[in-house]
User: Fold this.
Amino acid sequence: MSGLSHAVAAGKYSTCRAWRCARGRLNSANLRKKNANSFVTLFISTIFANSYITELTPMVKTNKHHVGLLPQVIIAIILGVATSYVLPDWGIRVFLTFNGIFGQFLGFMIPLIIIGLVTPAIADIGRGAGRLLVVTVALAYADTVIAGLLAYGTGSWLFPSMVDSVGTIPHVEKGLALEPFFSISIPPLTGVMTGLVLSFIVGLGIAYGRLTTLKNCFDEFKYIVAKVIDKGIIPFLPLYIFGIFLNMTHNGQAGKIMMVFAQVVVVIIVLHVFILVYEFCIAGGFVRRNPFRLLWAMLPAYLTALGTSSSAATIPVTLKQTIQNGVSKDIAGFTIPLCATIHMSGSVMKITACALVICLVTGLPHGFGHFLYFILMLGICIVAAPGVPGGSIMASLGVLASILGFNSEAQALMIALYIAMDSFGTACNVTGDGAIALIVDKIFHRQKAAS
Assistant:
């Protein structure tokens, strides 16, 4: 090879080497920039997550152009109150017509939601038979029921005076000055309790009979129901709530409702902190460790759940912090994903408190026996909540209607009040999972040591 050829080859090699080095530095810079942007995005999302994060999959997806469900509901309430003073009667009747049709569709879907979500949930839990499963489910359900009873006891003590300070209003179905232009009747295929009993029978039959074909059918039906909730119900809830508050303001009811709601939100936020403290005090006493240090170690999981409003998206953080609290990896790996589905202390507490205040405001029955039955059934139905914003309250509409007698307007008020505090309930749920894991780990390690 000539000297010129050597020089050209050397030049090409140097150029290629320089290009690779430059590209490597560029990729490194881009990676650092991407990591920095990811950190900033995570930080911002943790603070303003309800505006950016959607609970559709276990992976957290962000879209800076997306407006979350909570801001949409808040905007809908404000616009509903403000628009009622300027909108003519025929305009209000347009939204009443939409609300009437949507309410009928919602009533039609409630039994299907129960059958489609509860049946696969029971089948999935039943298939993993074993003492570890039984102990974990029992602890999670007991804590969920206790949280509901705590909400009822606190509400029975505080809420009547709050309601008396603003005065009761007639039942939301009475005294409507305006009527929709027309109505469409969409009767449900079955009753709510019939659907619930059917879900138990079929779910347990699938679990114990190992009926794979039937299980696959209900899994596919669950997919359909979840898609209807995600695409056909949740997106229209702000418009539905707008119509509710538009009509309530027109009838002079909205002011009293919002004054009570503002006080209830404060009570529920304090309650969810108290629930976390008593959960970790019990767990700390069981494992003989400082409960507040255990609770402090779960703070990253709490903040992540507060930001994402998703139990599923918080599982990696909850799992890491639970192991950091001294729980063995095998116990943590079993209890944390399971409790993300079945341990709903924060959600049940919120729903119970919200339901009680609406019963007080609207004059519906709210005796202890009535609410005890409601809480016991709610703790089961909410296990099947779909992974979408507001999924827990959607899964609870059946028992609200069948046990407490909530009509479509009362259900809309429940949805609005619940969504206003959605993140706090999720944060309470997942943080409490760490307390249950501590107790389960202690029980089974003690048994291993004895054997």
